[in-house]
Design brief:
234 residues, Structural Genomics Hypothetical 15.5 Kd Protein In mrcA-pckA Intergenic Region, Chain A, Alpha-Beta Plaits
Length: 234
């Protein structure tokens, strides 16, 4: 598929699923979704979008080899595929020879492990389970950590109109701690710390499920077969 967004009916025709006329009929019947939402007539499909018909994922390129990467994202790189919005985006930074996109996000000022792939099915599985699989981080804050801070971080902090789920927090030194989350709230760790009057100085993600950060900053590696299988269990 072209990297230029194309209309949904043209997309379904190009991948050999059905004619454009039939695609328009399916669209009118509400049987097509893009990223889980029913699109309007004329909606365009981007390379990173997941298209489903009657709940079945339509591969954008069925013959394309699946790529699964573990990437060490440095601070300052943005997890977006839109090069027109952000010049320092993750896709251009990795510069992989095939079109791939990030799974989930890691904010601009954070560093560490981010997964990238061209497999829409696994993206859907991971994002649907984003509130349940382990993600481990090492965090440095601006002042000494107290027992009260640790207790509140572990038991739940009110942010974004909710209370964070209980999690594992281990103090590493006066201003550094390790935290394992099973949630995926926006800027969750930073917001939790801010709610307790702390400011994050450094934040690094070192693990997602069974995949650990074992590469140099700015580098990437392909996932092992075992790692990919584990992701499909999400």
């Amino acid at each position: 598929m072209s990297e230029t967004p194309i209309r949904i009916n043209k997309f379904l025709s190009q991948v050999g699923f059905c004619s454009r006329r039939k695609a328009d009929e399916l669209l009118a019947q509400g049987r097509i979704t893009i990223n889980g939402e029913i699109p309007e007539m004329g909606t365009k499909v981007k390379p990173e979008d997941q298209v489903e018909v009657d709940g079945k994922i339509i591969e954008q390129n069925a013959n394309q080899e699946k790529v699964y990467l573990a990437v060490y994202k440095p601070k300052g790189v943005v997890c977006t595929t839109n090069a027109r919005v952000e010049k320092n985006n993750i896709v251009d930074f990795v510069d992989y020879p095939e079109r791939i996109y990030p799974v989930g996000r890691l904010d601009k000022m954070s560093e560490g492990l981010i997964l990238m792939t061209n497999d829409g099915e696994i993206v859907n599985k991971i994002l649907r389970a984003r509130h349940y699989h382990d993600k481990e981080y090492i965090v440095t804050v601006d002042k000494n950590i107290t027992e009260d801070f640790l207790k509140k971080m572990r038991t739940g902090v009110p942010i974004l109109d909710t209370i964070t789920r209980p999690c594992t927090v281990e103090q590493m030194n006066e201003k550094k701690f390790k935290i394992i989350l099973t949630q995926g709230l926006n800027r969750q760790i930073r917001r939790m710390c801010e709610a307790l009057d702390y400011r994050v100085r450094t934040l690094k993600r070192i693990r997602i499920k069974n995949i650990t950060l074992d590469i140099e900053k700015g580098k990437y590696r392909k996932l092992t077969e075992a790692e990919v299988k584990d992701l499909y269990k999400a």
